[in-house]
């Protein structure tokens, strides 16, 4: 949060300049948000695309629990819950008087339907694994649901807050992709494919009603176009803004506030742990010392981002700062390479997905690795190719990607995950974590997990992606942080 | 071979008329400038383009850096020199593919004029033309991955029908000429006539068209690189330089102006040279124009 | 005439079949799986298999080709994997935007090129002619995406006369739609206008050199009268051919410009569909474009043949 409100003094100038912009003609109950990616469809339970949640999360669809701006989990459609002593039975008390946008009542049956649907055999839920421990869902009465787990799972309330576990109605589940019907403060209104999506206020919302009448999501993938659209006043907010280099220009303009918050995106130099020479821990350690994080943050992100030394978000209370363990030290890197038998270096592949952190970061890392004798062949891939070659095919040496799912250190316990890290010791820590509900004990285990992957130099840990964006100076209530892929608009309003 | 309507000047006069044609001379000099830049870049550039110097990024043009520095602190002048290599190589090979594959097809179609083969070749040409070029390029890279080679293939494919049509059209008119008829009477085969009598007489046309396709190839390579489908880093390319700095138009104009100018001037040079060549080879056209 | 038409229609049909097979085969070999793209980084393999099954991706190639072709004849293009709406509707929406943009750009380019070309021809070798020809050379040489970004920066970012891009939909009104199309249309029109002006000029000069114009001049018409009464009409044929070519080029070739102005046209639909591996959209949309171009070529050929019987023999 670098920039603050500094527009009061120049309110006169502001009034003149915004009067010229098209957005200002709209009533002060409408907001247009810029977003880089258009969602493929609007069903958060049937696809992984972040763009789906960015439109629907908390606005259209709600789950039993939900994330707040600081990442904590609070009651959503469940008013309260009780957990049995063995940690296996969760009894949720549901809110009453909640209606879906089509007018039908929200009941315990809808909850059972939605959760059963995730675990059904023909389910196409992208995060199915998060809910695999749910053994059965029982309707006690119309406003009470009992969820039984096969084994204790300390993360289940957290997992239920994900967009993938929102509550949908059986009648409309099949058509949510194009006509989403949820319980949220906004209703889906219109979608001009390739251009924008409109949401309008839900007058019958059960909680505090939205302050805005209409929210428009406008899709602008090109960073240059995004800049022009903000300058032209076509959009009132662009979070996250795709080009950090432009933020300084926005900051100099009294019409805008630049917002800098946190995300759950650990940006890492993923390393194929089974591909020689990266199967040698010494080589991975050398890699870690060959990378200059500050140059990457400066060169690729124009200074926005927090260095990390492990796969964990620095704003999380359980975070341990391990960056010093992999300090930039090219001489040390060369020495380690020589010890590993690569005194003359080697050549590997560096496959980069489209975001600019990867493309720019990749060029910088390639130059840094060249300094210690490692040559990289860069190939710039689109996401589909990246998924095919790197993620599924594991045909890569190095890649750069930001893991934006919240609390996802558990991926290191999956030996078939694309970086192919197989450590029984780490897997044991994760298993213990799942069986633990005591907060202090959980923190301890999470810290042990962070240390383990840092000690094994599984991947090169670069930086935590910052949530940088630009917001009209008069628009209030936009989440500065990004605890999940969401643009919660329920409490956003225009200041007079 | 007196009947050379497509080449109605003795060779000695060509140089003279070239020197008198302002569009040829301007075009030739511009082209020469970039070819020289590309050649020199193999031996010497002011700064190594693979070395990043991030603290020195986005510097305005100065005595040390004539065109300023880019987002990673690299010298833009050096990058344009090395980028010329890529642009010229890609466009040149793509034109080569068009000529090597297209001209024989066109000559064959003309030799077998009216046959089924002719029809198949011509319809095949139409078919290639009917495909949206950039989309095909995108699909090719989706299949084979991005890179200079695939950019060359994508551009080259669309050069084939251009040269096939040109060669067929020009050859058709020559097949009715007396000296060709004489060669036929003398018992020469179609292939031999095409090679000995037809090809030399359409060479001028091919050179002119080749120059134009060359310039189109440079534009196409820049476009492909702009959408990320051309050469991959760290080798610089003009189109990718534009793409990587597109958000810096206002902040650091040198990062987009100089690569853009390089493209404009090279294409302009080639087009002017092509125009000049056409006038030189065919003075009748010059009178008409 | 009839045998000519029959042959031409026959080869039209064959071309279309060949095009459909090429498109289908290319789509077949494109690596990348729409199901895994949709499900992202955390999906389990059996979830992907379930989605592949529900999308009908596992039928044999021949069956899928046959269903695609027969479906198109029935006007059924299937359902988009990612958008989950009928492909036909998606394409129709985009055509409704791309077609007007193409016409707008062509109109602009013709309106500019015509007078400029005539002026240059009328004042051949004058300083006016030389400078016009110089400017058109420049117009051809400027990469249109570079020019487009400049337009966007100046007219949207700085002057704020226009939106930076996007398209509000025709529901927002005719003029709102036209306004949104203006910057992309100008960017597209610049190189086309330059080419067209040059063609106009040289075609006019060619006709001016022909016998019937000389006859007209001999009858006492001034150069200017000859130009207006006879030359322009006769010079139009090559110009119209170029306009026809530009039409099909613009319809599909605006991808980069559409990206810069985040304009929801055919090009960006196909581009996005390729990156998302929504191949069912890609194949039908590309087929439609190819069909349009082949049809235009066919119509041009037939029109020429009707106009000039000599061509019938030469072309058939």
Automatic annotation (TrEMBL), chain A:
SUPFAM superfamilies: Periplasmic binding protein-like II
Source organism superkingdom: Bacteria
Pfam families noted in UniProt: SBP_bac_5
Keyword line: Signal
Keyword Metal-binding: no
Main location (coarse class): periplasm
Every Solute-binding protein family domain range: 73-400
Subcellular location: Periplasm
Molecular function GO terms recorded: peptide transmembrane transporter activity
GO cellular component, one term: outer membrane-bounded periplasmic space
GO biological process: one example: peptide transport
Signal peptide interval: 1-26
Family: Belongs to the bacterial solute-binding protein 5 family.
Protein name: ABC transporter substrate-binding protein
Species per Swiss-Prot/TrEMBL record: Flavimaribacter sediminis
TrEMBL record, chain B:
Domain ABC transmembrane type-1 intervals: 84-274
Chief location bin: membrane
Gene Ontology biological process terms, A to Z: transmembrane transport
Topology of the protein relative to the lipid bilayer: Multi-pass membrane protein
Family to which this protein belongs: Belongs to the binding-protein-dependent transport system permease family.
Keyword Metal-binding part of the UniProt annotation: no
Transmembrane segment boundaries: 24-47, 86-109, 129-158, 202-228, 248-270
Entry protein name: ABC transporter permease
Matches recorded under InterPro entries: BP-dependent_transpt_permease, MetI-like, MetI-like_sf
Organism: Flavimaribacter sediminis
Localisation: Cell membrane
Keywords: Cell membrane, Membrane, Transmembrane, Transmembrane helix, Transport
Cellular-component GO terms for this entry: plasma membrane
Signal peptide: none
UniProtKB/TrEMBL annotation, chain C:
Transmembrane segment boundaries: 12-30, 103-122, 143-162, 174-197, 235-257, 285-307
GO molecular function: dipeptide transmembrane transporter activity
Keywords for this protein: Cell membrane, Membrane, Transmembrane, Transmembrane helix, Transport
InterPro entries: BPD_transp_1_N, MetI-like, MetI-like_sf
PROSITE patterns to which the protein is assigned, alphabetical: ABC_TM1 (PS50928)
Domain ABC transmembrane type-1: 95-300
GO CC, alphabetical: plasma membrane
Record membrane topology: Multi-pass membrane protein
Main location: membrane
Pfam family, one: BPD_transp_1_N
Protein localization: Cell membrane
Superkingdom of origin organism: Bacteria
Family membership noted in the UniProt record: Belongs to the binding-protein-dependent transport system permease family.
Name of this chain's protein: ABC transporter permease
């Amino acid at each position: 949060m670098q920039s603050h409100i500094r527009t009061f003094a120049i309110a006169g100038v502001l009034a003149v300049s915004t009067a010229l912009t098209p957005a200002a003609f709209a009533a002060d109950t409408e907001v247009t948000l810029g977003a880089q990616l258009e969602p493929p469809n609007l069903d958060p339970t049937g696809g992984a695309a972040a763009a789906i949640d960015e439109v629907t999360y908390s606005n259209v669809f709600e789950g039993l629990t939900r994330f707040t701006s600081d990442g904590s989990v609070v009651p959503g459609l469940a008013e309260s819950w009780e957990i049995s002593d063995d940690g296996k039975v969760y009894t949720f008390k549901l809110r009453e008087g909640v209606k879906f946008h089509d007018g039908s009542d929200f009941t315990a049956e809808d909850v059972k339907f939605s959760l059963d649907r995730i675990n059904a055999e023909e389910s196409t839920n992208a995060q199915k694994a998060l809910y695999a421990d749910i053994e059965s869902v029982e309707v006690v009465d119309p406003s009470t649901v009992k969820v039984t787990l096969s084994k204790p799972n300390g993360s289940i309330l957290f997992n239920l807050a994900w967009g993938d576990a929102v509550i949908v109605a059986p009648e409309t589940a099949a058509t949510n992709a194009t006509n989403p019907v949820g319980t949220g403060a906004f209703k889906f209104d219109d979608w001009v494919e390739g251009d924008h999506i409109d949401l309008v206020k839900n007058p019958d919302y059960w909680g505090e009603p939205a302050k805005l009448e209409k929210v428009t999501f406008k899709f602008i993938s090109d960073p240059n176009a995004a800049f022009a659209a903000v300058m032209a006043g076509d959009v009132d907010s662009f979070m996250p803004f795709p080009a950090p280099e432009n933020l300084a220009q926005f900051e100099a303009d009294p019409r805008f506030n630049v917002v800098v918050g946190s995300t759950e995106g650990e940006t890492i130099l993923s390393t194929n742990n089974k591909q020689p020479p990266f199967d040698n821990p010494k080589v991975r350690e050398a890699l870690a010392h060959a990378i200059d994080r500050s140059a990457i943050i400066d060169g690729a992100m124009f200074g926005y981002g927090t260095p990390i030394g492990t796969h964990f978000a620095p704003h999380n209370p359980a975070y341990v700062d391990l960056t010093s363990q992999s300090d930039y030290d090219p001489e040390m890197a060369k020495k380690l390479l020589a010890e590993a038998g690569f005194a003359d270096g080697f050549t590997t592949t560096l496959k980069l997905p489209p975001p600019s952190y990867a493309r720019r970061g990749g060029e910088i890392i390639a130059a840094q690795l060249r300094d210690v004798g490692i040559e990289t062949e860069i190939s710039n891939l689109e996401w589909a190719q990246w998924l095919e070659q790197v993620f599924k095919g594991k045909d890569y040496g190095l890649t750069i990607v930001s893991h934006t799912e919240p609390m996802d250190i558990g991926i290191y316990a999956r030996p078939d995950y694309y970086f192919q890290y197989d450590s029984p010791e780490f897997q044991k820590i994760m298993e213990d974590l799942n069986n633990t509900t005591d907060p202090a004990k959980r923190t301890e285990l999470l810290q042990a997990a962070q240390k383990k992957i840092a000690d094994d130099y599984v991947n090169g840990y670069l930086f935590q992606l910052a949530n940088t964006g630009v917001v009209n100076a008069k628009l209030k209530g936009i989440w500065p942080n990004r605890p999940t892929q969401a643009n919660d608009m329920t409490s956003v309003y225009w200041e007079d | 071979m007196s009947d050379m309507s497509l080449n109605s000047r003795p060779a000695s006069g060509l140089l003279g008329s070239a020197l008198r044609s302002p569009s040829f001379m301007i075009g030739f000099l511009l082209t020469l400038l970039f070819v020289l830049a590309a050649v020199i870049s193999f031996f010497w550039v002011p700064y190594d383009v693979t070395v990043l110097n991030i603290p020195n990024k986005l510097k305005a043009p100065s005595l040390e850096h004539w065109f300023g520095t880019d987002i990673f602190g690299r010298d833009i002048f050096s990058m344009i020199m090395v980028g010329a290599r890529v642009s010229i190589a890609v466009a040149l090979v793509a034109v080569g593919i068009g000529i090597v594959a297209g001209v024989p097809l066109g000559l064959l179609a003309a030799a077998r004029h009216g046959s089924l083969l002719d029809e198949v070749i011509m319809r095949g040409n139409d078919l290639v033309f009917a495909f949206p070029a950039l989309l095909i390029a995108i699909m090719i890279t989706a299949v084979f991955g991005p890179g200079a080679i695939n950019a060359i293939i994508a551009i080259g494919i669309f050069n084939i029908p251009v040269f096939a049509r040109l060669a067929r059209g020009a050859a058709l008119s020559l097949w009715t000429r007396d000296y060709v008829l004489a060669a036929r009477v003398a018992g020469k085969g179609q292939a031999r006539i095409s090679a000995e009598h037809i090809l030399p007489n359409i060479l001028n046309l091919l050179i002119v068209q080749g120059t134009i396709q060359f310039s189109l190839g440079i534009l196409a390579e820049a476009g492909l690189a702009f959408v990320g489908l051309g050469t991959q880093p760290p080798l610089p390319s003009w189109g990718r330089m534009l793409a990587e700095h597109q958000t810096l138009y206002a902040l650091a104009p040198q990062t987009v102006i100089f690569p853009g100018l390089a493209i404009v001037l090279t294409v302009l040079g080639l087009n002017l040279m092509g125009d000049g060549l056409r006038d030189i080879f065919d003075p009748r056209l010059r009178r008409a124009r | 005439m009839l045998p000519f038409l029959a042959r031409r229609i026959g080869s039209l049909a064959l071309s279309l079949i060949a095009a459909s097979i090429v498109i289908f085969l290319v789509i077949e070999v494109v690596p990348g799986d729409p199901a895994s793209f949709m499900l992202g980084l955390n999906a389990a393999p059996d979830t992907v298999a379930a989605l592949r099954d529900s999308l009908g991706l596992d039928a044999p190639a021949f069956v899928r080709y046959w269903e695609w072709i027969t479906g198109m004849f029935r006007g059924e293009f299937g359902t988009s994997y990612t958008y989950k709406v009928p492909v036909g509707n998606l394409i129709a929406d985009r055509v409704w935007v791309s077609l007007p943009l193409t016409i707008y750009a062509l109109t602009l380019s013709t309106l500019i090129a015509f007078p400029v070309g005539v002026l240059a021809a009328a004042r051949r070798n004058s300083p006016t002619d030389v400078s016009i020809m110089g400017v058109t050379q420049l117009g051809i040489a400027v990469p249109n995406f570079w020019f487009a970004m400049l337009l966007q920066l100046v007219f949207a970012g700085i002057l704020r006369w226009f939106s930076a891009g996007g398209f509000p939909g025709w529901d927002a009104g005719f003029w709102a739609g036209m306004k949104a199309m203006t910057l992309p249309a100008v960017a597209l029109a610049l190189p086309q206008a330059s080419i067209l002006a040059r063609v106009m000029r040289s075609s006019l000069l060619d006709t001016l050199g022909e016998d019937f114009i000389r006859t007209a001049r001999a009858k006492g018409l001034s150069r200017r009268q000859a130009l207006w009464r006879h030359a322009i009409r006769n010079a139009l044929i090559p110009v119209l051919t170029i306009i026809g070519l530009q039409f099909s080029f613009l319809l599909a070739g605006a991808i980069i410009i559409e990206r810069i102005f985040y304009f929801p046209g055919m090009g960006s639909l196909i581009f996005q569909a390729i990156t998302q591996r929504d191949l069912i959209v890609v194949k039908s949309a590309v087929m439609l474009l190819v069909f349009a171009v082949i049809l235009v070529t066919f119509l041009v050929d037939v029109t020429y043949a009707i106009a000039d019987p000599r061509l019938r023999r030469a072309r058939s």
